[in-house]
Amino acid sequence: MQELSETDAGGGVIRRVLVVDDSRLQRRILTASLQRWGFEVQEAESGDDALELCRDNPPDLVMSDWMMPGLSGLEFCKEFRQMSRDHYGYFILLTSKSDKDEVALGLDAGADDFLTKPVNAAELRARISAGARILRMERELTEKNRLIKTTLDELQTLYDLLDSDLIEAKKLQQSLVSERYRDFGPAEVSLMLHSAGHVGGDLVGMFPISDQRIGLYGIDVSGHGISSALMTARLAGYLSSSVPEQNLALRKTADGRFVARPPSEVIANLNRLIMSEMETEHFFTLLLADVDLASGKVIMSQAGHPYPALQRANGQVEFVGRGGLPVGLIDGAEYQQFEVTMAQGDRLLIHSDGIIECAGTSGALLDDTGLASILRDLRQTRGMACLESLIWKLSEFAGDADFADDVSALLLEFKPSLFPG
Known about the structure:
Layout: E1 16-20, H1 24-36, E2 40-44, H2 47-56, E3 61-65, H3 73-82, E4 90-95, H4 100-109, E5 113-116, H5 121-175, E6 181-183, E7 187-194, E8 202-210, E9 213-221, H6 226-238, E10 250-252, E11 258-260, H7 263-277, E12 284-292, E13 297-303, E14 309-311, E15 317-319, E16 337-341, E17 347-351, H8 353-356, H9 367-377, H10 383-398, E18 407-414
Parallel strand pairs: 1-2, 1-3, 3-4, 4-5
Antiparallel strand pairs: 6-7, 7-18, 8-9, 9-12, 10-11, 12-13, 13-16, 14-15, 14-17, 17-18
Helix pairs in contact: 2-3
């Protein structure tokens, strides 16, 4: 009989065979057939000797007699299955037993197949072929699992690098709102920025116009993640508080002073800039306010941003504004202005839609009505404590501190003591 090729009984996955039998004659008969078929064969006359050979040079296939003095074939099989190895080893028990209970006992011990003694060469070859198919599938699966693990490890490395970069990006984005509170004398301004992920598309800010006037804004860029965050970073430069020359809301006069442009004009200019110079699919909503600290007059323009909440000193809440189109959607869009006059103890909340569109445990949105209720509850809470309490109540409403959307807010509060009567 000719030697086996990889397409024959061993299938290329069975090369080393261990024959275990206390009968030297039986070992010689089996070894002769296996060697003719091209296998590398080792012999052991006991289960103990076989275990030593398995530790030194793990076989692909074991053929072991069941009944042996000392460690029986069944006991050897159990020990064999406990051994650590890179690939599965196929185990055939040689036995004269044919009782179903005995066969079940052998399978429970870890045997894969059985051969009845005396062994028929054709049947032996067929059983080896069956074992080769199983081992081939096991090794293919092992290789696929190895490739998957390698790929997952590489992806984890990339994820860790990306996560590290996103953490740094979050720090940079949060630094755009480096000043969370400022006392302007007649009024105080508090800022809050809470991204749904590492980074987001919300931004709130303030900038000085003169000794008695300040600019305030709330921005919400469409989408989430890195591209939205990059957009907010660029917009922060257009409304810079540290470099007035770059602030599109300010105009430098001949005497070197800076004066405010009308909020509606600023938003229209931003829309033209986005539509003509920036290649982006993003658009954003914006509310821009010009605040006169001396008179309490606030001039605002709204570009798709939620209606700001004006809470009077008596606790009553009204939502003001005229809507308007988001910036970056329609070329040549026009924007309107509106005014409110704030008195002693009044406050104005400029917020993103992440607040009013927050879904509760029932699925209903918070909406303006829910926000007004929260503001009334927090009537006596001021400044950063008010914004922090707002976040807490929002997470209580949603049943989760991780919001589905970015959440941002700016709170302008006039001090009661400066407005007698």
